[in-house]
Amino acid sequence: MDVFLDFLIAKFNYWIYVILMMIGLFAMIAKNNLIKKLVGMCIFQTAIILFYVSIGVKEDARIPILTGHEVPHGGHYHTEDHERPYIDAKTVTNPIPHVLMLTAIVVGVSTLGVALAIAQKVHLHYDSLEEDEILAKVQLGNND
Amino acid sequence: MKPMKLAALLTVIVTGGLLLFATSDLPDWGDPLSPANASDLSTYYIQDSRDVTEVPNLVTAVLADYRGYDTMFETVVIFVAGLGILSILGQGKCEEPLAQPVASEQNRERDMITIITCRLVVPIIQIFALYVIAHGHYSPGGGFQGGVMLGSSFILIALTSGLPDALKRMSQERAIFLAGLGVLIYAGTGLVCMALGRNFLDYEILHKLMGGTGVKARYDSMLIVEIGVAFTVMAIMFIIYAVLSSKGRMRGGL
């Protein structure tokens, strides 16, 4: 039991992302309404963003902005005008996942905008956002 | 239950089960020795990037300098998304404001309190957005965040005083011009680097134009490209709102 609990606590974050992702995936496949599908897509996207950011976390580490009070690693090196201590990389959060997700969030918003525009066009054209009604109308149009 | 929902549920359960099974191979929470955290690249960024760029915010340094290509094409993606929305829903050239307002506007009573509050708040939002853009080297911030804030200030005007009022300040043509200008600033910085004989977006050579050292040139060019990103993001965020809220007619609105 203790082994299982340790396992659960150490991996608890991944469980949440997987569950969030599956909620999004289910909404994208099963929902009939186009807007609900888009909401599912957003939940899916958020789960992946959380997953990436959590990868960069280090226990007891600072944010990736250097303030001059970082924990030195031991040893100094010289720059052009002064000498600086090596920073212990374990004490600063990994910046790479943050960079990747920063752009992903804004791009996610703009792609969502395109998706909403298409949904609105569909609504203007077929007067409905329900998938089955749109399909019926498309087939009706093809038979004419 | 419909067969489609049952099939979706089965897919989700199987996929979720496999993913949960796979989590046992992933590193523990907060492990500083995990492959991603202990990689040479991440350690290099933390230990060395400040000396070659003088930017304490590692995220900005990596975003605008080391991963400049990535950020430039993300900006292009946003620009193209804005153009895509306009071509899907927009109706070509923005029409002149009607002499006779649309019926939905005529019957609308604008609330005085929200309009006055908005007038007070918008300049503060915009100044803070400029601060976020300019202070991205030292604190959480930069072109994307500041651009979204600038865009939201125009959206606030559109929400309180109506879309025509906001379009008077930021017309469709002006927004497209600003979005294109942002991409041009970013790509132009890269092209100037090429003209001076280095690789695309290799800012170090720009010290020939800007004076100072190569490190200072990298520091300054990061601010230039962040401003370009902010222009594009601001304009496209406003276009998304304006087009979606008015069904592409660019008048009336919410």
What's the helical proportion of residues of chain A?
55-70%
Q: Give a short account of the largest sheet of chain A.
A: 2 strands, antiparallel
CA(first)-CA(last) distance of chain B: 38 Å
Main structural class of chain B: mainly alpha
Q: What Rg of chain A do the Cα atoms give? A: 24 Å
The major pleated sheet of chain B works out as: none
What integer is the average pLDDT of chain B?
88
| Ends apart, CA distance between termini of chain A | 66 Å
Order of strands, widest sheet of chain A:
1-2
Shape of chain B: globular
String of helices and strands of chain B: HHHHHHHHHHH
CATH C-level name of chain A: Mainly Alpha
Number of helices of chain B: 11
What's the CATH architecture of chain A? Orthogonal Bundle
Structural commentary:
The complex is a heterodimer of chains A (144) and B (254). A two-stranded antiparallel ribbon of chain A has the order 1-2. Chain A has helices at residues 2-10, 12-30, 34-55, 95-126, 131-143, and strands at residues 72-78, 83-87. With 144 residues, chain A is mainly alpha-helical. In chain A, helix 2 runs antiparallel to helix 3. In chain A, strand 1 (72-78) and strand 2 form a beta hairpin. Chain A contains five helices and two strands; from the N terminus they run H-H-H-E-E-H-H. Chain B has 254 residues and is mostly helical. Chain B has one domain. Chain B contains eleven helices and no strands. Chain B has helices spanning 3-22, 40-53, 58-66, 68-89, 103-106, 112-134, 143-161, 163-169, 172-195, 207-210, 214-245. Chain B is globular, with a radius of gyration of 23 Å. The model of chain B has no long low-confidence stretch (mean pLDDT 88). The chains are: A mainly alpha (144), B mainly alpha (254).
Draw up the topology in text.
The complex is a heterodimer of chains A (144) and B (254).
Chain A: H1 2-10, H2 12-30, H3 34-55, E1 72-78, E2 83-87, H4 95-126, H5 131-143
Antiparallel strand pairs in A: 1-2
Helix pairs in contact in A: 2-3, 3-4
Chain B: H1 3-22, H2 40-53, H3 58-66, H4 68-89, H5 103-106, H6 112-134, H7 143-161, H8 163-169, H9 172-195, H10 207-210, H11 214-245
Helix pairs in contact in B: 2-3, 3-4, 3-11, 4-9, 4-11, 6-7, 7-8, 7-11, 9-11
